[in-house]
Amino acid sequence: EAQVTQNPRYLITVTGKKLTVTCSQNMNHEYMSWYRQDPGLGLRQIYYSMNVEVTDKGDVPEGYKVSRKEKRNFPLILESPSPNQTSLYFCASSYRDGWGTNYGYTFGSGTRLTVV
Amino acid sequence: AQKVTQAQTEISVVEKEDVTLDCVYETRDTTYYLFWYKQPPSGELVFLIRRNSFDEQNEISGRYSWNFQKSTSSFNFTITASQVVDSAVYFCALSEPYNFNKFYFGSGTKLNVKP
């Protein structure tokens, strides 16, 4: 089944304790992104990647790191989490075909992170 | 600048009613893509439809239909004979033509369908 898999689904952690949220897609998609969703603020892009070893900042990158060493994986790293990073996080992947058609994002199931 | 506006924050209907969710977008690009996503109470984001700016044909998929009008920069979504399972938050989104990673999401419309 074509999908984007995020782990964990739920995570409670303490301020300052480094954590990684994993994201993997099995569709051979070039493009991957991380979003956070907060009440009243909608979906905001954290980082995105155009392909292996190519990443760039989205709208709210502060406090996050990413890497894209393999096409299928795009982990989100919080080096020193703070309570304001409590949020619902989504990983997503997409691709375009030879005609340039943008097929839109396939989203993972989400990771609900609480930082206390 | 790119922008997507979903003016309806929340809509409540009774089952079997028809309901239209509005989406208005702003872009200076002549080529772009528009999307609708559904977020049910379980939280995941589910792709519903993609439309490119050159295709103004309306689309129908079962009880769902979409009306794309470039003249008014709108991409509205209608659910016919709504069901309780349609209760969700619906997001409209616009993507840039050359940066496929850049999506502009609307703030979402929460649809409550009551039995």
Q: What does it look like?
A:
The complex is a heterodimer of chains A (116) and B (115). Chain A has 116 residues and is mainly beta. Chain A is built from no helices and eleven strands. With 115 residues, chain B is mainly β. In chain B, strands 2, 5, 6, 10, 11 and 12 form a six-stranded mixed sheet that branches. A four-stranded antiparallel sheet of chain B has the order 3-9-8-7, with no helix packed on it. The chains are: A mainly beta (116), B mainly beta (115). The interface between A and B is medium-sized, with 26 and 22 residues.
Quick overview:
The complex is a heterodimer of chains A (116) and B (115). Chain A is 0% helix and 49% strand. With 116 residues, chain A is mainly beta.
Molecular shape of chain A: globular
Catalogue the unreliable spans of chain B: none
What class, by secondary structure content of chain A? mainly beta
Largest sheet of chain B: 6 strands, mixed
Mean pLDDT of chain A comes to 94
Helix-strand pattern of chain B: EEEEEEEEEEEE
Strand coverage percent of chain A: over 45%
N-to-C CA distance of chain B: 41 Å
Low-confidence stretches of chain A: none
For the biggest sheet of chain A, the summary is: 7 strands, mixed
The helix tally of chain A amounts to 0
- The overall pLDDT average of chain B reads 93
Give the chain pair forming the largest contact, with residue counts: A-B, 26 and 22 residues
Indicate the proportion of strand residues of chain B. over 45%
Task: Give the strand tally of chain B.
Answer: 12
- How much helical structure, as a percent, in the residues of chain B? under 10%
Q: Percent helix among the residues of chain A?
A: under 10%
